[in-house]
Amino acid sequence: MKPNDMIRWLLITAAVVFVAELLLSGTGVLIGIGLGILFIYLGKRQLSGRKGTILFWIGIFIVAMSLLQSFAFYLVLTAGIIYYFTKIHDNTTSKPQTYQPSFDQAASEEQVFEQKSLFQNSWFGAQSAGCSVYEWQDTNIQSFIGDTIIDLNYTVLPKEEAVLMVRKVLGNVRIIVPYDIEVDVHHSVVYGSVAIFDHREQNCWNKVIHMRTKGYQHSSQRIKIVTSVVAGKLEVVRV
Where does the Cell wall-active antibiotics response LiaF-like C-terminal domain start and stop, copy by copy (predicted)? Predict the structure, then answer.
């Protein structure tokens, strides 16, 4: 059976099982999910206060416990896992069709060389750079759980725009920038907080933030920071 067919049948089975659970065990699961969504909605409207935060996380807990009691949820989760790994397999095995134009044989071939990356992707654990002097390289990393700390005081940025991209699911990102470096920050967060120099925001919910220092456009040394976090804090400071 192909992965797509398996996913389709798992989803159909999950729908049938969910209806059967409602007929056999009543509407307990629906009531729990509905009550949790109500708490999340009320908490989201009052996230700035302590009461709203408590209601929000109580709602998350109720919805999670209600779903964990449903066998249909595990079927949907299995279908999602199969779909995820199928996509990874397709991306790593499928080779796009390429067209090679013909040139004169005298034309020289372009050579590329592999560069050692400063960071590596990680599932779990913290990453840090800045304990000792290191050579700067444009960086693009992602991780699942853990904190990331990057101290730019221990490197020399090029006389052009440097790029730093960090993506993670759960965890904090702390970036330390020298005083003579101009900064452009693009940050996307589902839920978390932001502290970019003097600009601070708490309880950010599904928000995109773009901040730039005044002299960025005309500076010879500048860095563009692009971060994406599902849940966590971004902190950009000068030390």
Answer: 123-236
As a whole number of angstroms, the distance between CA 224 and CA 161 comes to 7
For the chain, how big is the Rg over CA atoms in Å? 24
Contacts of 181 (CB under 8 A, 6+ apart): 152, 157, 219, 221, 222, 223
Q: Are 118 and 143 in contact (CB under 8 A)?
A: no
The bridge status of strand 199-212 relative to strand 182-196 is antiparallel
Gap between the Cα atoms of 92 and 97, Å rounded: 14
Q: Which residues of the chain have pLDDT under 50?
A: none
Q: Residue 199: CA atoms inside 13 Å, Cβ hemisphere, count? A: 12
Q: What is the pTM of this model?
A: 0.51
What is the pLDDT at residue 220? 84
Residue among 192, 197, 203 at smallest CA distance from 177: 197
**Helix, strand, or coil here: 114?**
coil
pLDDT on residue 114: 57
Predicted confidence at residue 67, as pLDDT, reads 66
Residue 197 has a pLDDT of 92
